Amino acid sequence: MYSAGDDISAVVVDVGTCTTKSGYAGLDTPTVFPTSVGITYTYGKDGMVGSYQKAIGDGEDLDPDVKKTYYTGHNAISYKRQHMEIQSPLSEGLIKDWDAMEHIWSHAFHEQLNINPAEHPILLSEPAYNTRQIRERVSEIMFEKFHTPAVFISNNAVLTSFASCKATSLVVDSGGGVTTIVPVHDGYAIKNAVVKSNLAGNKLTEEYYRILSEKQIKILPYNLIKKQEIKPGEYSVTPIDMPDLTESFKKYHTLETIRDAKESAFRVSTSFLGEDISTVATVPYELPDGNLLEVGSDRFHIPELIFNPIPLNDLEKPATPYQSLQKMIYESVEKSDSDIRKELIANLVVSGGNTLFQGFSDRLYYELGELSHAFGKVKVVTPNVTERKYSVWIGGSILGSLGSFQQMWMSKSEWEEFGRPLVEKKCP
Ligand SMILES: Nc1ncnc2c1ncn2[C@@H]1O[C@H](COP(=O)(O)OP(=O)(O)OP(=O)(O)O)[C@@H](O)[C@H]1O
Ligand SMILES: [Mg+2]
């Protein structure tokens, strides 16, 4: 059993597809930075390899003489560094690149929080569909590389449920990379009733990018333009063309600009309430180069995909068909034990950045008519914007500071005694 001194706070880390939220347990809000990393590849002493393809080649392992250098945090990955590729350690919400992931954790501990992880118990969140292998490796890295004295891994949805002060709820989390429906009963996720889809915030941003490209509207991110004031209030803007910037760098920052436009101009259509969306005004969005992007019907049509999806193109794969959010919720309730269905839908908790569109909860409630008809009264709990954005982290912050939780930690000495099987035992 782990026992920390009274002055040692636990640290809570929620690594999401878009952003990593971290901070001391007991605080109200986390610090946030992008989950993507920058990577350059060098050969020998100072020879730049040039590109990821050259460094690694198709289907090959990395040449042992090629050195990878990682860059983390908003400023480091925004800097126009030659040949720097931008990558995410996660794929569909699961860790796929362990080196990159270690750099994200390290950035959270050393750069964002300025702590020595060897001195703090670390509470980590995980998706409901995480694999046993991944959670065991995560624990191993925490204990053996970061030398943390204690670790706990908790399910995202359970933490969100905690943040809403509920032991039983149906958690609907739509973030950047994944939308997940998870029934939580008495503080435990019901794993065989989890329903997930990759139709989340990033897909909507990519879809807007595709539509803008089709309309031949070029988006230049702020770090790829040179803006000079020629007269007071008048600027000349020239695109920066550096041949050694990678496509992944340009794409990442272009999508970040489009994401910002999406977040400020889009909303969910409430045409079901009689609103005629064809008469609703367009919204101007000022692009970094000073041009105005007039956001018209796209501002309704793209979020509409959440409730009325069409197959969307994945980058290299053929178009993927998606299920609507209301169908996913229905399926999850149907997969849950019939005794608890009523309680679940009376406590449907909405969370994640992709639910922040104006009108989201009203529309969701409207779309759940069939569900209430089949299973009983639906109550949608919509926490405020900050709580919805950071619900997983906030739940961790509450849990990590509870006195009664302190006996739950996996301690370093237990890890040394039991090894990997400890994880399933202590973090169900
Ligand atoms: N005000 C807003 N309106 C609409 N979408 C928003 C808003 N704020 C954030 N988002 C979107 O929410 C997504 C990020 O949400 P969140 O931080 O919950 O995801 P994450 O935890 O990083 O990823 P995931 O949980 O999917 O692994 C992004 O796609 C972002 O564009
Ligand atoms: Mg998340």
Automatic annotation (TrEMBL):
SMART domains cross-referenced by the UniProt entry: ACTIN (SM00268)
Protein name: Actin-like protein 6A
Annotated PANTHER family: ACTIN
InterPro entries: Actin (IPR004000), ATPase_NBD (IPR043129)
Organism: Cavenderia fasciculata (Slime mold)
Gene3D superfamilies: 3.30.420.40, Actin, Chain A, domain 4
Record family assignment: Belongs to the actin family.
Source species, domain of life: Eukaryota
A biological process term (GO) from this entry: response to mercury ion
